[in-house]
Amino acid sequence: WVKENGKDNYSIYEGYMIEKSANIMELELELRKAVENQEFILYYQPKIDLNTEEIVGCEALIRWDHPRRGIISPEKFIPLAEETGLINQIGEWVLREACKQNKKWHDTGWSDIQMAVNMSVSQLKQSNIVTTIESLLIETQLDPRFLEIEITESISMVTEEEKIKQLFDLKEFGISLAIDDFGTGYSSLKYLNKLPVDTLKIDKYFIDEVGMSTYSTSSLMVNAIISLAKSLNLKVVAEGIETQEQMKYLKKHQCDIGQGYFLCKPLPADELEKFFKR
Ligand code: C2E
Ligand code: MG
Ligand code: MG
Ligand code: MG
C-alpha cells in the first residue's frame, strides 16, 4: 500500500514537473519573441538628496509589456533571461535606452541627472562588455560620468582577476559603480577593498524597520553601513523608503541619498518629467 501510494505521488509529481517545464519553455519562447519585437519598457525611479531634496539621479527598471499578459515585473523574467543567456541582449537594450533617455533629459535642461542601470553578473562576464558600454556611450553621446552601473553583491563571487579588471576599465572610462542590495548578498567585505566601488545601496530589508524603534538591530545596522560608507569615502543610498519616519531617521543619521515609494514610485519617462517640474 505504502509503495503504491508512493508511486502515485511520484506520478503526480512527475506530471507537475512536466507541466511546469512546459510553462517555462513557453515563457522562454515568449521571451525570445519579446527580444525580437522589443516588448520591453523602462520605468525610472528618482534618487533624492535627503538634505536638499533635489533629484540627483534615477534608476532604470525594466518591465516586460507583454501583449496578452500585460506588464510583467523583472523578478518574473530576469532569472530566466539570465539562465538562457538572453540577458545579454536585453541588457544591451536597457543600457542603450537608458543612456538615450538621460541624454535627452540633459539636453532638455535636467543636466545633473545620473542614470543608474542594473546589471547582472552574467552580463559583466561577457568578454566584450567594456567595449559594448563604451560604444553605447559614444553612440548616445552621454558623458560617462552620468552613467552608474548597479551590481548585486553576488559580484563578490566573481573572483577571476579578469572580471574584476573589466570593472576597473569601466571605472577608468568614467563610469560609476554601485553595490546594490548591500548587506543581504553573499557578502564579504573583502571585495569593497578590491573593487572600484563608488556607492553602497542599503537594502530595503534594513530600511523596513528603521524609524519604528531607534534600537532595532536593523537601524543599528543602517547606522553601521552609513559610517562604513563614509569612512571609505563612498556615497550611500537608502532603498525602499516608504514612510516619513524612515526618511527622518535616515536624514538624521546622515544618509546622503534616498529612494522609495514615499519619495516617488518608478514611472515611465514622460510621467517622471512631470515630477521633475515640481
Ligand atoms: P533593485 O535594483 O534592487 O531595485 C529596487 C526594486 O525595489 C525595484 O523593483 C523597485 O521598483 C522597488 N522599490 C523601489 N522603492 C520601493 C519601495 O518603497 N517599496 C517597495 N516595496 N519596493 C520599492 P523592480 O522594478 O520590480 O525590480 C526588481 C529587481 O529586478 C531590481 O532590484 C533588479 O535587481 C532587477 N532589475 C530591474 N531592472 C533590471 C535590468 O534592467 N537589468 C537587470 N539585470 N536587472 C534588473
Ligand atoms: Mg538596483
Ligand atoms: Mg536594490
Ligand atoms: Mg533587488
Concise description?
With 278 residues, this protein is an alpha/beta fold.
Describe it for me?
By secondary structure, the chain is an alpha/beta fold. It is built from eleven helices and nine strands. An eight-stranded mixed barrel has the order 1-2-4-5-6-7-8-9, surrounded by four helices. Helix 1 crosses helix 2 (74-84), helix 3 (87-108) runs parallel beside helix 5 and helix 5 (129-140) packs parallel to helix 6 (161-173). It is globular and about 55 Å long. Bound molecules: ligand C2E and magnesium ion (3 copies). Residues 59, 118, 150, 180 line the site of one magnesium ion.
Low-confidence spans: 1-6
Q: What class would the helix/strand composition place it in?
A: alpha/beta
Q: Give a list of the ligands.
A: ligand C2E, magnesium ion
Strand content: 15-25%
Largest sheet: 8 strands, mixed, barrel
**What is the rounded Rg?**
21 Å
N-C termini distance: 71 Å
What's the total helix number? 11
Give the ordered list of helices and strands: HEEEHHEHHEHEHEHHEHEH
Number of strands: 9
Outline the secondary-structure elements.
Elements: H1 2-37, E1 40-49, E2 55-66, E3 70-72, H2 74-84, H3 87-108, E4 114-118, H4 121-124, H5 129-140, E5 147-152, H6 161-173, E6 176-182, H7 190-194, E7 199-202, H8 204-207, H9 217-231, E8 235-238, H10 244-252, E9 257-258, H11 269-277
Give a quick set of tags describing it.
binds magnesium ion, PAS/PAC and GAF sensor-containing diguanylate cyclase/phosphodiesterase, binds ligand C2E, globular, 50% helix, 278 residues, 8-stranded mixed β-barrel, alpha/beta
